[in-house]
Amino acid sequence: MAEMFSTKGRYALRTMADLGSHEGWVSLGDVAERQGISRKYLEQIMSLLVRAGFVESQRGKNGGYRLVRPSSDYTLGEILRAVEGNLAPVSCLDCTSGELCPKIENCTTVDIWRDLGKVTSAFLDSKSLSDLIGPDGADSCA
């Protein structure tokens, strides 16, 4: 079965949880090492998270990245949408292109996929980033 979320989405959640489990500025190299993600790929993910306004960066010796809001104020759904684009389970429901699937009117499966998308979105929107971070502030994914 194909994966519903790419490595970009999975790594974004791990990275945000890592940042949320540390105080102050966190270096990209430290996150990359702890999470086992290549620094180059992590830079791409961080760029999307900065653009979404979820993290801020500071250059310099004591710089790095940090969350803009408390971890409890981020939903997993919004983080995934920021890096994945959408949470549609099948490409024919991806409305970002502006084109509808030509078979949508006669498709016998579209309602199932639409309902799955709603359930998935509702579930991910009901979970906060703090749900990924252990009670002692430790990233449970590390």
CATH topology: Arc Repressor Mutant, subunit A
Instruction: Give the oligomer, counting copies of the same chain as homo and different chains as hetero.
Output: single chain
Shape: elongated
Structural class: mainly alpha
Strand content: 5-15%
Bin the helical content. 40-55%
What name goes with the CATH superfamily?
Winged helix-like DNA-binding domain superfamily/Winged helix DNA-binding domain
- Average pLDDT, to the nearest integer? 88
Tally of separate helices? 5
How many DSSP E strands? 2
* Major beta sheet summary: 2 strands, antiparallel
Order of helices and strands: HHHEEHH
Distance between the termini: 26 Å
- The CATH level-2 architecture is identified as Orthogonal Bundle
Write down the Rg: 17 Å
The level 1 CATH classification is Mainly Alpha
Task: Describe the strand arrangement of the main beta sheet, using strand numbers.
Answer: 1-2
| Low-pLDDT regions | none
Give an overview in words:
The protein is elongated. The chain has one domain (7-132): Arc Repressor Mutant, subunit A, CATH 1.10.10. The model has no long low-confidence stretch (mean pLDDT 88). The chain contains five helices and two strands. The protein has helices at residues 7-20, 28-35, 39-51, 76-84, 110-126, and strands at 55-58, 64-67. Strands 1-2 form a two-stranded antiparallel ribbon. The longest helix is centred in the last third of the chain and has 17 residues, at 110-126. The two termini are 26 Å apart. By secondary structure, the protein is mainly alpha-helical.
